[in-house]
Amino acid sequence: MKVFINNREYNAESNETIIELCDKVGIHIPRFCYHKHLSVVASCRMCLVDIEGVNHAQPACSTPLRENMKVFTHSNKTKIAQKNSMEFLLINHPLDCPICDQGGECELQDVSLEHGDDHSTYMQLKRVVVDKDISPLISTDMTRCIHCSRCVRFGEEISNVKEFGLLNRGEDMKIDVVIEGQVTSELSGNMIDLCPVGALNNKPYRYKARTWDLKQHAAISPHDCLGSNIYYHTYNNKILRAVPMENQQINQTWLSDRDRFGYEGIYSKDRAIKPMINQDGKLIECENQIFLDKLNDMVTSAIKSYGAENIGCLISPQSTSEELYLFQKLFKSLGIINIDHRTNERDFAYQDDYPIMPSLGININEIIEFQNIFLIGVNIKSEFPILSIHLNNAVKNNTKVFSINFDALDEDFSVFYKKIVNNENVLSLLNNYIEEISVRKNEKNLVIIGPTVSQLPNQSDVLSTINKFGESINARIGFLTDFCNNTSAWLLGNLPHRDICGKKSKIIGKNAYEMVSEQLSAYILFNLEPEHDFWDSNIVERALKESKCNIIFTSYVTPLIEKYADIIIPISTFAECDGSYINIDGTFQSFSKIVEPKEDISSGWSILNKLLKYNTLDSYDIKNLRSEIKGLIKDVDIQNFKINFKNIKNKNQLDGNTFIVTRRNTYKTDSIVRRAESLNMTMQSKDNNIYISNKIADQFKNNSYMDFENNNIRYKTNEFTVKTDLPDNTIIFSTNSLNGKYTGPKSQNINIKNE
Question: What are the pLDDT digits (tens) for 151-168?
Answer without folding.
Answer: 999 999 999 888 888 888
